[in-house]
Write a structure and sequence with these properties.
Blueprint: E1 31-36, E2 41-43, E3 49-50, E4 55-68, E5 71-79, E6 86-92, E7 97-102, E8 104-106, H1 109-131, H2 133-164, H3 169-219, H4 233-266, H5 271-321, H6 330-343
Antiparallel strand pairs: 1-4, 2-3, 2-8, 4-5, 5-6, 6-7
Helix pairs in contact: 1-2, 4-5
Coiled coil: 107-205
Keywords: Coiled coil, Metal-binding, mRNA processing, mRNA splicing, Nucleus, Spliceosome, Zinc
Protein name: Splicing factor YJU2
């Protein structure tokens, strides 16, 4: 049994290749090839657009009796994707492109025709100049005249635009300056607002710290070694209220002084204004020192009067509640007894 994959074939000694019959194929035989559309086209029957690069199974054949410098020209047959109409185009080796033949129209064909016309005109002109030197001078004069006309038209258009354009440069500069000043003013206002907010936050923090320290000081009470009288209970409420009022007044005055000191430390003033402020502060301090002892005396007198009134009302209530009693209340007896013990 012979091998399945053989590289060398057996040729008998009487083999004559000239005796093998040759196939006679037609010259216009067609082949099926796979290709892409070389340009954008539109079908004439249904109006379908076929874009460049779309793939088709086309039939290929050689065009009879058409050559370009010995190169054969090929024709391709494709079908429309919508109506299956036949579209044909062929190669154009002269322009290194493809030429539309039947069944569709090429898009952007007008631009291509204009370019071809320009190339043809340029070629004819070069040929005329080579044979006729006078034509060269005529073409140069025509070109120079055309350039001068174009420059003159351009200059006229510039002058016309300058006449119609009414631009006020001074007004533009004023508007620009106004906008700059507005932006600067807004920035200054924002800076001032930030400073105020920072100062308010610092003042609040300091006030909270001062109030916390005052509360801690008021909570710490000294121990009394002396014995208290029974009648001192009636006077405690009034003394506590008076102390509370005095503490609130002192806190308000200290807050004002602290806020003024902070502002004076932050803001730099002129010498004259600073001296006037110092004189005013000194006068206010002197007035406060003069008024403070009078206020304390008045508060003490009012406190004593209130305590006396409370004691009298309490003693009258006790006497009225105990019938048949001799005018001396039990509280007064206890007070006399405690006084006698202290004297002993």
């Amino acid at each position: 049994m012979s091998e399945r994959k053989v590289l060398n074939k057996y040729y008998p000694p009487d083999f004559d290749p000239s005796k093998i019959p040759k196939l006679k194929l037609p010259k216009d035989r067609q082949y099926v090839v796979r290709l892409m559309a070389p340009f954008n086209m539109r079908c004439k029957t249904c109006g379908e657009y076929i874009y460049k690069g779309k793939k088709f199974n086309a039939r290929k054949e050689t065009v009879q009796n058409e050559l370009y410098l010995g190169l054969p020209i090929f024709r391709f047959y494709i079908k429309c994707t919508r109506c299956l109409a036949e579209i044909t185009f062929k190669t154009d080796p002269e322009n290194t492109d493809y030429a539309m033949e039947h069944g569709a129209t090429r898009n952007f064909q007008a631009e291509k025709l204009i370019e071809e016309e320009e190339k043809r005109f340029q070629k004819e002109r070069e040929e005329e100049e080579l044979n006729n030197p006078m034509k060269v001078l005529e073409n140069r004069t025509k070109d120079s005249k055309m350039e001068m006309e174009v420059l003159e038209n351009l200059q006229e258009l510039k002058e016309l635009n300058q006449r119609q354009a009414n631009v006020d440069f001074e007004g533009m500069l004023e508007v620009y300056k106004a906008t700059e000043e507005e932006i600067r003013r807004r920035q200054e206002e924002e800076d001032e607002q930030e400073l105020r907010s920072m100062m308010e936050a610092a003042n609040r923090k300091r006030l909270l710290e001062d109030s916390d320290s005052d509360e801690e000081g008021s909570q710490v009470k000294p121990k009394h070694t002396q014995k208290t009288k029974a009648t001192d209970i009636l006077v405690k409420n009034d003394n506590f209220q008076n102390k509370k009022q005095r503490g609130e007044e002192l806190e308000s005055s200290s807050v004002k002084v602290n806020s003024r000191q902070l502002l004076s430390g932050l803001v730099v003033r002129k010498k004259e204004v600073a001296q006037q402020d110092q004189a005013k502060q000194h006068n206010t301090k002197m007035d406060r020192e003069k008024i403070a002892p009078k206020v304390t005396e008045m508060q003490n007198e009012s406190a004593l009067q209130s305590t006396g009134a409370v004691a009298e009302s309490h003693s009258s209530n006790v006497n009225s509640s105990l019938p048949g009693s001799s005018g001396v209340s039990s509280l007064m007896q206890l007070g006399a007894y405690s006084d006698s013990e202290e004297s002993n």
